[in-house]
Design brief:
This protein is mainly alpha-helical. 78% of the residues lie in helices and 0% in strands. It has 8 helices and no strands. It has helices spanning 8-15, 24-44, 50-53, 57-95, 102-132, 134-143, 149-174, 183-212. The relative contact order is 0.14.
């Protein structure tokens, strides 16, 4: 059964069980989907309302575009949930390959490496997709229904959490690839994504707090 077909309780029960999947990678993608869903809610409760009608025509058009993109990102995040499960189970199967002869040992080693790289690339791609979504949230904070700006703030926090969680899953696989030429480049990319995300998160949360909890003079 696909993750998107699970009830919330079913997913949590399976996540907390001894089942090999879902795990941290699929959960990271779920968090990304939750972030996009919250931000989409801000748009859903803005479009057609007074706050929407007061916008300039260009901003109205952009909001509709970003609302559509948010919904597409929800679906894409769900796909990442499935991809992570497939990658992990595929990698685990490689460890079960026979290793009785030199040929079998060599083949097993090659398949483990191949699937470890695959398992590393999926959360990395998730993090790269997530970092782009900050622009979507930024617009919701600036032009969305002001009564829902705190929800856009939570979407911001969740997005950063999704990126941090994805990078953890990159690194756990990357640790088995130490010595490969591409490892340093991946490390640098991970650090760049984390730093960039942290700055964006802090900036957006500051904007949210200015709106929802402005400092009052005593």
């Amino acid at each position: 059964m696909l993750f998107k077909e699970y009830k919330v309780d079913d997913f949590l029960i399976e996540l907390s069980s001894e089942a090999p999947s879902p795990g941290g990678g699929s959960t990271a993608a779920l968090v990304a989907a939750l972030s996009a869903s919250l931000n989409s809610m801000v748009y859903s409760l803005t479009v057609g309302k007074k706050s929407y009608e007061n916008l300039e025509n260009e901003d109205k058009k952009k909001m509709l575009i970003l609302q559509k993109e948010a919904k597409e990102f929800i679906k894409k995040s769900q796909e990442f949930m499935e991809n992570d499960r497939e990658d992990f189970l595929g990698l685990m199967n490689c460890y079960k390959l026979p290793k009785n002869t030199d040929e079998e040992i060599k083949f097993r080693k090659e398949k483990i490496k191949e699937n470890t790289i695959k398992a590393m690339k999926t959360p990395l791609s998730l993090a790269e997709e997530c970092i782009k979504f900050y622009e979507n949230i930024d617009f919701a904070i600036k032009y969305g229904n002001k009564n829902l700006i705190s929800d856009a703030g939570v979407a911001t926090i969740l997005l950063h959490s999704a990126i941090e969680s994805a990078i953890i899953n990159v690194k756990v696989n990357l640790s088995f690839l130490i010595g490969e030429d591409f490892v340093k480049d991946i490390e640098n990319k991970c650090n760049s994504l984390l730093n960039n995300s942290y700055v964006k998160k802090c900036n957006l949360i500051n904007e949210v707090e200015k709106i929802i909890y402005p400092k009052k003079s005593l």
